[in-house]
Amino acid sequence: MVWVVEKKIFYHILDMGFESVGIPVRVKFEFDVQNGKFVSDSLSVESLYNQQAVVKRYPGVRMDSLDKEIQRTIQREIRNYLQNLGYISNNI
């Protein structure tokens, strides 16, 4: 059993119609690897981005919707990371 801790910065692309904005999201995620494979129920994720700056620049953005979109981006990027390292198969 190996416990892996990674810190990455992922970018969520927010399409405003008139421009696309890359929102940097600092992510720390931890997971367990056993026999070279990811243990699915071991993933722990913490994320941080500057919500105040997004709201100030784009006051029409709904934060609950943005938070859900950012969480989907984080999950996709973590899945890609795990696939690239061979911890999970590309079929998932």
What does this 3D model show about the protein?
This protein has 92 residues and is an alpha+beta fold. It has one domain. The chain is 32% helix and 39% strand. The chain contains 2 helices and 4 strands. Strands 1, 2, 3 and 4 form a 4-stranded antiparallel β-sheet that branches.
Descriptors for this entry?
single chain, 92 residues, alpha+beta, four-stranded antiparallel beta sheet, 4 strands, 39% strand
The counted number of beta strands is 4
Distance between the termini: 22 Å
Major sheet summary line: 4 strands, antiparallel
| Structural class designation | alpha+beta
* Oligomeric state of shown chains: single chain
Rounded Rg? 15 Å
Helical content band: 25-40%
What is the averaged pLDDT score?
A: 92
Shape: elongated
Query: So how many helices?
Result: 2
The ordered H/E elements are: EEEEHH
Give the amount of beta strand, in percent. Answer: 35-45%
- Return the domain count: 1
Q: Which spans have pLDDT < 50 for at least 5 consecutive residues?
A: none
SSE layout and pairings?
Elements: E1 2-15, E2 20-34, E3 37-38, E4 44-48, H1 51-57, H2 63-84
Antiparallel strand pairs: 1-2, 2-3, 2-4
Task: Briefly say what this structure is.
The protein has helices at residues 51-57, 63-84; strands spanning 2-15, 20-34, 37-38, 44-48.
